Amino acid sequence: MAAIFRPSANLAAKFFLLGMGGLLAGGVFWWWVYPRTDYARGVGWVIDQPVPFSHEHHVAGLGIDCRFCHTSVEVSANAGMPPTYTCMTCHSQIWTNAALLAPVRDSLAHDAPIAWKVVNDLPNYVYFNHSIHIAKGVGCESCHGSVDRMALTFKAASLTMQFCLNCHRNPGPNLRPRAAIYDTEWRRGPDTPSPDALMKQYGIVNRDLTDCSICHR
Amino acid sequence: MIRVGALLLLAIALAACDDMTTQPKKNAYADASVGPGKVPAGTVAFQERPVAPPPVSLALIERGQERFRIYCTPCHSELGDGNGMVVQRGFPAPPSYHIDRLRQAPPGHFYDVITNGHGAMYSFAQRVAPADRWAIIAYIRALQRSQDASAADLTPAEKAALQ
Questions:
Q1: To the nearest whole angstrom, how far is the Cα of A2 from the nearest Cα of chain B?
Q2: What's residue B36's pLDDT?
């Protein structure tokens, strides 16, 4: 009886198997590995803004507090972007002719908000709130990095679910005294209260912060 | 029959496959017509209700100190002498709080300056709530006193410590 497959079919079968293996690996990479890389999540990438605003100049250089511009961070879910009026508090008098600031002056003249591009973004199915974190002693730096050293703002943390849970499982070591919340240079020192003491001070006791309904509501 | 059932199941399972990340949520700020910067005509800001000055307490002064350091020190400096960081970079210098005119000015004058601005100084009404304005004023009063204390203000114990 004649063979059903010719000898060359061996090669074809090998290629087929290899191809399937490659597809599987490629699929895993494309759907599982790649979306979790810092590159895909845009960590560390500067986004072109309408005005090249520098936190380094304004925060580290001039010592302006975060709340001068992000006024609602203590009391609301959103930190809030500074309106043009806030920039003009100073730039009505200094750097008044700088070309860099032309979009700010146009915005005031035409009564149209400056369209800042979003740097940190969570999917809409995640519930997030700034005020609770500030009230319970989590510093801006824990999620936004050393903003005061950013000449142009970039995303410093991946903001994946894993990132949030890493802290929610045991917030203690990430908490700071109230005075250090806006200080992005603060580091735990010998006279910092212990994590347990801070947990008690902020009243974070007997809670499971990893319940799905905390962030998915 | 089994094949049809399997196909149907597959269709149902795959129908739920859409990317959650692209599903929108109602977001008040996403709608440009009500977004920040565009307030419908005739709107009254809820914080704008003036409040009566609260009684002066240590907590009030501490709150005032915190707010003062956020909103006022860039120009007026921690000391209130009007030589803040932004003034050092070329902003017109504000008067020192430690001049007679401002020592004698009634609290209402400070409230008015914070609410409506004054000359080159912009209004802080959007950023400082009425209750916090009084707190800042209480702190400025403490600041003025700190630079203008006389021997008569000291307790006997403090006098003894100084001698």
A1: 34
A2: 54
ipTM computed for the complex: 0.82
* Residue A49 sits at the chain B interface (C-beta within 8 Å): no
The total number of residues shown for chain A amounts to: 217
Cα–Cα distance between B134 and B115 in angstroms, integer?
Answer: 11
Mind listing the domains of chain B with CATH numbers? 58-145 (1.10.760.10)
Residues A72 and A16 in one domain: no
Q: Is residue A195 part of a domain?
A: yes
CA atoms within 13 A on the CB side of B145: 10
Q: What residues of A are in contact with residue B21 (Cβ under 8 Å)?
A: 123-125
Are A73 and A13 found together in one domain?
A: no
Mean pLDDT of chain B: 82
Give Cβ neighbours of residue A215 (< 8 Å, ≥ 6 apart).
A126, A127, A128, A161, A164
Residue A211 has pLDDT above 60, yes or no: yes
In a domain, A107, yes or no: no
pTM: predicted TM-score of the whole model, two decimal places: 0.89
Q: Closest Cα of chain A to B160: distance in Å?
A: 33
Q: How far apart are alpha carbons A39 and A132 in whole angstroms?
A: 30
CB contact under 8 A, B89 and A94: yes
Q: What is the 3-state secondary structure (H, E, C) of A158-183?
A: CCCHHHHHHHHCCCHHHECCHHHCCC
